[in-house]
Amino acid sequence: MGAKSAYEYGRLANEASKVMKLVDDSIETILVGSSTPRLPSYPEWDRIALEEAYENVDYLALHNYIDKYDEEDLTKPPKNERDDTATYLAKAYRFDRQIEEIVATCDYVKGYLRSEKTMYLAFDEWNVHAQPEKRHRDFEVGSPIDWCYFTMEDTLLFGSLGLAILRHADRVKISCQSLLVNTIPLILTDAKGQAWRNPTYYVMQHLSKYAKGQVLEQQIICPVYDCEKIKNVPYVDSVIVDNGNQLTIFLINRTNEQQKITIEHDFNLLDQGERYTLTSSDLLDKNTREEPEKIKPEINYFSIEKHDELNVGIEKYSWNVIRIKKM
């Protein structure tokens, strides 16, 4: 009941947006796009709906959840075997590509309509996904839905998804990490009243606190690896943010070896910095009720020897946040 084609939905959304803005011209509206790039209709649905509503909406929404068992085609059932680590972490590249494909779709419609308006994106839902640890029972109060642990491996991918959004901050203006407590969550609770953090919590904490300012353009020289379906995946994922008083460097090591990083820059920085590192001895480690802090960030301080170059080593399979104040 109520299903609509992309054309029908676009026309309805266009009229609804116009009416809302007549009531209050400060209202901003978001056009619903494809719920996942794995749909056969992606991104054609987005194009058709956008052509009908382009001038009267402010954002186009996109969603994505990444699971190590997912098939690329949503019409196929989940795989019986999970992705290997290299392939799973490389899926962040597809997340980057999704943003770029939707930007291209928006810009095509802009050109097709001869519009002066640039469409921005709202990443309304994004997260990693894991198989439920507890069974859901219908009509039972408090029955868990997608109650799951996230491992260190999941956390590295989660971090790369966050960095992908930052890299496209010129077009992604709204970003909502979905689901806070108990459902593919940042925070877990149990019936006994205890609460603890999935390790993904710390990544979101760091992004929320420190990814404020201007995202800088980088020129990266880095070894790459190939998977069966994803090629040229960088060993290291990175984003640098300048808030005017401080540089924050986010680094992810996707490999099982320590990586040495050299960052050449022209900032006047103090000679000491701080670094948060999130890692674990086993990629399948997780935080549980019995061991709620098995994976948590460690902080250390380091000295900077050269005024125009920063040299750091990052641990294997790790999330890192480096913060250095300017002079």
UniProtKB/TrEMBL annotation:
This protein's pathway: Glycan metabolism
Q: What biological process terms from GO does the record include?
A: L-arabinose metabolic process; polysaccharide catabolic process
Q: Tell me which residues make up the Alpha-L-arabinofuranosidase C-terminal domain.
A: 124-318
Domain of life the protein comes from: Bacteria
Give an example GO molecular function.
Answer: alpha-L-arabinofuranosidase activity
Q: Relate the assembly described in the record.
A: Homohexamer; trimer of dimers.
Task: Report the protein name in the record.
Answer: Alpha-N-arabinofuranosidase
